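Title: Comparing notes on inverse folding

I've been comparing how different people in this forum approach sequence design from structure. To keep things fair, I'm posting one structure and asking everyone to reply with a full sequence. Here's the target:
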């Protein structure tokens, strides 16, 4: 039997997938072309793990990535309902090229290997250009296990501009909350938290207010739409709760959108009272002890 040197230990990033019925062929195994789709899906999640909203990040950098090469080597077949782990790593960055190595695993078994090469280029002319140092540092930093975001805490005077960008994207543009309801006098007295990625782009925010004696109130929690599910909301919430503990608060309350109720419950919050509408959106008051 052929021995392969690629193992799960070669990757720090994995994206889980379950084989769907539509992806198997008449041999009852995954049709070979679907593995390219698996890797393409995983690469989107890889950018999310880097806290990079892909389209906005590439616009920020002034370029885009184009596939130069995508090759697969098959070792074994995946079957319907298999639970797979798609591993990816950035293996090499040249002057204008970025090479990824990938593996499809079922448990510890390597099924398929991939080599994927992108060229960084001018979107208007599709002519290659050097990979920006900021992108290079982000990729290499991720593979080295470095943090992909930095969370800053401060007053509106210091963080208002960056917090405003995230809140405008999420609340005003996405949820269509009127401007006059989004901005209030509490911003001036609140402690704000803003998460920025390695490119300096703000991607999540929240604020902390005093609700009563020893009681904190957290609000305006917002995460860039394409980065939700990557842990940014959890990190912002924990940073604000830590700040509340440090100033002596014993309890925290918040108004959770009903669509985010499960997220807060997973972090120890409990609902209280009846649901209500705020800015036309269903909410539930939730609380948690700061122990």
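Reply #1:
Here's my take.
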């Amino acid at each position: 039997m052929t021995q392969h040197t690629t193992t799960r230990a070669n990757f720090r990033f994995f994206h889980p997938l379950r084989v769907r019925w539509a992806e198997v062929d008449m041999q009852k195994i995954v049709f070979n072309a679907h593995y390219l789709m698996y890797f393409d899906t995983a690469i989107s999640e890889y950018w999310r793990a880097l806290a990079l909203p892909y389209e906005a990040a590439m616009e920020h950098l002034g370029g885009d990535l184009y596939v130069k090469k995508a090759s697969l080597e098959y070792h074994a077949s995946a079957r319907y309902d298999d639970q797979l782990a798609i591993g990816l790593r950035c293996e090499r960055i040249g002057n204008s090229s970025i090479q990824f190595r990938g593996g499809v695993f079922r448990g510890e078994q390597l099924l398929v290997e991939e080599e994927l090469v992108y060229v960084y280029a001018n979107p208007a002319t599709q002519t290659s250009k050097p990979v920006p140092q900021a992108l290079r540092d982000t990729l290499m930093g991720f593979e080295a296990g470095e943090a992909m975001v930095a969370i800053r805490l401060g007053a509106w005077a210091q963080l208002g501009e960056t917090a405003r960008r995230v809140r405008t994207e999420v609340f005003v543009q996405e949820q269509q909350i009127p401007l006059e309801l989004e901005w209030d006098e509490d911003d001036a007295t609140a402690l704000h938290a803003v998460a920025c990625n390695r490119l300096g782009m703000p991607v999540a925010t929240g604020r902390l207010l005093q609700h009563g004696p020893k009681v904190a109130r957290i609000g305006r929690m917002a995460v860039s739409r394409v980065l939700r599910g990557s842990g940014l909301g959890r990190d912002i919430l924990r940073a604000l709760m830590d700040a509340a503990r440090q100033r002596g608060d014993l309890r925290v309350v918040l108004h959770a959108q009903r669509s985010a109720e499960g997220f807060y419950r997973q972090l120890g919050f409990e609902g209280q009272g009846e649901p209500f509408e705020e800015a036309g959106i269903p909410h539930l008051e939730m609380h948690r002890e700061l122990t």
